[in-house]
Specification:
globular
Length: 269
């Protein structure tokens, strides 16, 4: 899960940019968490507490009203009785990685990913995007390898995982749909040599850089098994105490490889 959060933070200052070379500084003065991190933590909190996803999304989202939510989600967030709004935006996919870490069998992962998505993103493509990311994280931590993850995303979910990387880098544009985001984020991961390279690949594509890097980072953490300690430290330092403590709680419960859990006094059971 820290892989998704670090990707979001690293990508935050590049959102809306044109495609770029990969040799940018990973963290800068303005690097910060966005709605991707807040809602990732909200889903993790729901899993931890076995609370309704909608309740946790509203609880955490309202703590951070300026995190950068999309207009549809913002309207839903501040109305207690607001129904799901048939979205196929990538918000359902960027927040779901905790489910892929917490559960042991694929069918349960898919059921929970659907539940996490449909409180807001009840369009079939919104649900599919969440399921695909959760399944990719699950497959990564189960040691399925890139070929296994690619087969899952292609055959189970119908995403094109053979995109031409050079053409994708030239394409640019700002696509916030699951249909547009998932293949691009997956390609960034498949082209990578390690976690950092996956995030750099995602951000180099431009557009919705923080969400691309959040999703690619989630896949990369699960596949490579670890986010480098220096990147973890930079990302965790940019979270406030409430977010950081919830990340640590989740990491302890489900055995995530977060080095600070063993060393921090801010991580109570």
């Amino acid at each position: 899960m820290i892989g998704a959060i670090a990707g979001d933070i690293i990508g935050s200052i590049h959102e809306g940019a044109a495609p770029k070379p990969k040799d940018f500084p990973l963290f800068a003065r303005g690097s910060r968490f966005t709605d991707d991190t807040v809602l990732t933590v909200a889903v993790a909190s729901a899993v931890l507490s076995r609370t309704d996803y909608g309740t946790c999304l509203r609880e955490w989202g309202r703590r951070y009203p300026a995190a950068g939510y999309g207009s549809g989600f913002r309207r839903w967030l501040f109305r207690d009785d607001a129904p799901a709004y048939n979205s196929f935006g990538n918000g359902s996919a960027m927040r779901v990685s905790a489910i892929g870490w917490a559960l042991e069998d694929l069918e349960t992962v898919l059921q929970e990913a659907q539940r996490s998505a449909e409180v807001t993103h009840n369009h079939p493509q919104g649900i599919l995007g969440a399921q695909a990311v959760a399944a990719a994280v699950w497959a990564g931590r189960m040691g399925k390898g890139k070929d296994g993850i690619k087969e899952l995303l292609s055959h189970r979910f119908g995403y094109d995982c053979d995109l031409d990387w050079a053409a994708l880098q030239r394409r640019g544009g700002f696509d916030i749909t699951c249909q547009g985001t998932l293949p691009a984020a997956a390609a960034a991961f498949f082209q990578s040599t390690d976690y950092e390279d996956a995030v750099r690949n995602a951000i180099s594509l431009g557009g919705d850089a923080d969400t691309l890097a959040c999703i690619a980072g989630a896949m990369a953490e699960a596949h490579y098994g670890h986010v480098p300690d220096a990147i973890q430290a930079e990302a965790l330092a940019r979270l406030d105490s409430a977010l950081r403590t919830e990340v640590f709680r989740f990491a302890r419960r489900y055995g995530l490889p977060i080095f600070s859990v063993q060393r921090s006094e801010e991580a109570p059971e």
